[in-house]
């Protein structure tokens, strides 16, 4: 009986079998480094635009500074390399892209973000939060608490990007304009990021890190809610309560704005329009369950027609955001499909605890959907049994909890930063955001751990 091979022996054997695998991993590593550098690149683009006025240089730099474009650009680099690599070629690339319905999840996220970002959905969510806040007294603290509790939970139905947009707009209009202290500003931003990341885990179709693995791991909404939903709700309430108690004296000094700003405009949207929008969200989720990109495309076409017919109650369809997020996920799938050769032997050598913390650390330097997708490429995690179930839970728990540590840790975070960044003098400090996000991140991890022990 031969002795078990070491990690390096296993990696060396895989690289000897397919010489392109190390190259694919090197390209993926460059993509990760690029993603981490996007804030710095974006600042350089702004300097170019304001300084020399060289438009094409600043435009290219702006493109390189878009975190959502990073994986798409490097996926293109990998595909071109594959075409010219000995033993691969164009036929290999064509087969690689066509096998396994790879792009169902990115297309679903693209469609559901478009449908869920409709004015009718945004106003419905805003009205609900305003109503709850008014019933509980309507103070600044109450509205703050309601927004940071209800908005993330709504993300499980209307998707996390839509929840982030609603939450950031409400906080900007109702809270940040009151000029709270810098400590409270960062605490609130950290809560918003972490809560949206874990609040989307009540269903299997709203949070990108869950969407990327739900089909492969056989998770539906009941499984996701049992493993993460209950714990997410508890963690959100505990984190919000702790931060409220820390800043309760400052909340008492803040007065509501003289004029309440809403997301609504002067045109009242008929109830039937809102109901049809909700129906489109339900149908879109159903198409994901059926695993049909064709039906998803038909749903999107029908929605665009409905949007045009009801144009007087609509805002323009926001194609840019959904396209960028879809590009990000698609690029991640293309790159990630060539990474299982080193991820699989690495992860199978970890226990649940080490895998949990590794997932948190990796998520803080990269989008959490990237972490869970790469983990889904490990055959050992797709198998049945208690060991693989524990490892899957550890990966997802770390990815969800760590989604608020940095701006690039979760796909919706840049949207929140874009809306709220103007309230921070000198811009948002990544270090201060990270420090304030540690508290709700730890609470979420603890909630997931205890939930795992309870249901185990």
Describe the structure in brief.
By secondary structure, the protein is an all-alpha fold. The protein is built from 23 helices and no strands.
Describe this structure in words.
By secondary structure, the protein is mainly α. It folds into two domains: 17-99, no CATH class; 105-455, no CATH class. It has 23 helices and no strands. The protein has helices at 7-17, 20-50, 55-64, 67-84, 90-98, 104-116, 119-135, 140-158, 160-174, 182-199, 208-217, 221-246, 248-253, 271-289, 293-309, 320-336, 340-347, 352-364, 368-376, 379-382, 386-401, 413-420, 430-455. Helix 2 (20-50) crosses helix 3 (55-64) and helix 14 (271-289) runs antiparallel to helix 15 (293-309). The model is unreliable at 260-264 (pLDDT under 50).
Spatial shape: globular
Q: N-to-C terminal Cα separation, in Å?
A: 35 Å
Radius of gyration: 22 Å
Helix-strand sequence: HHHHHHHHHHHHHHHHHHHHHHH
Topology of helices and strands:
Elements: H1 7-17, H2 20-50, H3 55-64, H4 67-84, H5 90-98, H6 104-116, H7 119-135, H8 140-158, H9 160-174, H10 182-199, H11 208-217, H12 221-246, H13 248-253, H14 271-289, H15 293-309, H16 320-336, H17 340-347, H18 352-364, H19 368-376, H20 379-382, H21 386-401, H22 413-420, H23 430-455
Question: Which descriptors would you attach to this protein?
Answer:
23 helices, mainly alpha, 456 residues
